[in-house]
């Protein structure tokens, strides 16, 4: 196992880590600009950005864990890579949509794609565990 790198999971983790940094820096800049040290200072844009950041942190660990376990069990594959790419795109679209502060395609699409990716990976992992896939 020393040479095993899990290339799909590693690329997804690097991408999601970069997105996490981007989301955190957006919040930091707003906090500095408006002198808000704790909470959202009553601003809905800052609250939305905080929720978008938290939302990534809520979903990414589960997706990455499932992705890594699937890649360990079944190896690197096109479906794994494509699904990982969909998740990364969804996690970029969602916070962009959150900034609009109304219903919109990037926000809803990002949320829906996130749920679909999580459900797909959970199902795939369950099938592997059951010896079916």
Care to describe what's here?
- The chain is an all-alpha fold and 133 residues long.
- The protein has helices at residues 7-34, 44-74, 78-98, 105-129.
- Helices cover 79% and strands 0% of the residues.
- Helix 2 packs parallel to helix 4.
- The chain is elongated.
- The two termini are 22 Å apart.
Summarize the entry for a quick read.
By secondary structure, the chain is mostly helical. Helices cover 79% and strands 0% of the residues.
Average of per-residue pLDDT values: 95
Shape category: elongated
Order of helices and strands: HHHH
Overall structural class, as computed from helix and strand content, comes to mainly alpha
Low-pLDDT runs of 5+ residues are none
SS elements, strand count: 0
The biggest sheet, with number of strands, parallel, antiparallel or mixed sense and barrel status, is: none
Strand percentage lies at under 5%
What's the total helix number? 4
């Amino acid at each position: 196992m020393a040479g095993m790198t899990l290339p799909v999971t590693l690329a997804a983790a690097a991408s999601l880590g970069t997105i996490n940094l981007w989301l955190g820096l957006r919040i930091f800049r707003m906090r500095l600009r408006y002198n808000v040290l704790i909470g959202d200072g009553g601003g809905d844009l800052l609250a939305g950005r905080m929720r978008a950041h938290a939302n990534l942190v809520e979903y990414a660990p589960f997706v990455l864990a499932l992705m890594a376990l699937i890649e360990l069990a079944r190896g690197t594959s096109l479906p794994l890579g494509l699904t990982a790419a969909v998740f990364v795109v969804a996690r970029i679209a969602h916070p962009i949509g959150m900034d609009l502060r109304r219903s919109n395609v990037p926000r809803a699409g990002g949320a829906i794609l996130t749920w679909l990716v999580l459900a797909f990976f959970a199902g795939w992992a369950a099938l592997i565990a059951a010896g079916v896939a």
